[in-house]
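Researcher: Structure for this, please.
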Amino acid sequence: MTSFLVPSRYLALALAASLAACGKPDTTTATAAAPAPAVAVVPVAFQDVTPSSTFTGRVEAIEKVDLRARVAGFLEKRLFEEGTDVKQGQLLFVIEKPPYEAAVADAKGAIARAEGALKLAEVEVDRYRELVKKQAAAQNDLDVRVAKQTEARGALMQTQAGLQKAELDLSYTDVTAPLSGRVGQAAFSVGSYVGPTSEPLATLVSQDPTHVVFPVSNRLILEVRRQQVEKGEDPRAAPVKLRLADGSMYGHVGRINFVDVQVNPGTDTVAVRAEVANPDRVLLDGALVTAVIESKEPQRALVLSAQAFQSDQAGFYVLVVDAESKVQVRRVEPGVAFEGKVPVKKGLTEGERVIVEGAQKVRPGIVVTATEAAAKPAGDAP
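Model: Predicted structure, token format:
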């Protein structure tokens, strides 16, 4: 086995070079400190807000009628345009008339025959009454004629009732609007056979005004009543505003005209109904809307943008930038939002800076670079 000997002077040089290398800084691994995350903040400020409560409601027509055929026959005419307004008493459908006109004529003929039979019976009674007085006929013969007279009078009344029914059936061949409103789609075409057991010919709903019905918790009902009693006000005087499906506010304000007398045991809510003008036919029967009930007087409150709020299992919170530019978590209690304003009941003081943009980039305790956000609508409630 061969071995190699390294001269001692070479070992000394290698050790010196190694020690020199250890004393130099490694410029390739040194990095600059990361900049503080940038966030947008808004200062908490007092504003005048109107306390309000929102409820999910449904539009219900004040009057709604299914138009049905009350007699059987072929549909001869449809005298309206679907989806248009009609007036009370307006003729909408016509069912074939000839069979019912013939029934009326037959009933009139039956009346004429019954009147003739009654007249003959009355003559017979008068004749036998004179014969009995002269003892030319027995009393029994007169009694028989009186009975026939009574029978003839009953037959006449029966035929008169038959005429009334025939005339009523004839009138039912004209289907008229029982109320003013908007008529929907016709379920049958002209020429279809319809009758009392058929589906409705069409549906007619009143349009202006209309109702909006929404559930209110029994607790809130009791609270409002207590407040109204203290103020000496009528609870029904509270205005009801509506927010439509597209988020816009409806142009007419309603008034409460009915509060149900029973509480729904499943939800502990009470049905409340408001009447709202609907001249432009914007509110359609069955549509969902948001009912907003406001207090009459505005109140001063701290207000925040809805985008500042976050939530977890413990509730709502916001991220605040303190005087040292550090992020802090602040538990808050938001109020009911209205028109983009969200009042803060607890947890903040005026002037504190709350993060509204960039919250996903920060965590509690770190230093941030905060700039004030531009003013814009606050959006929906948290």
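Researcher: Any notable elements?
Model: The two ends are 84 Å apart (CA to CA). The helical segments are 8-22, 98-133, 139-171, 218-231.
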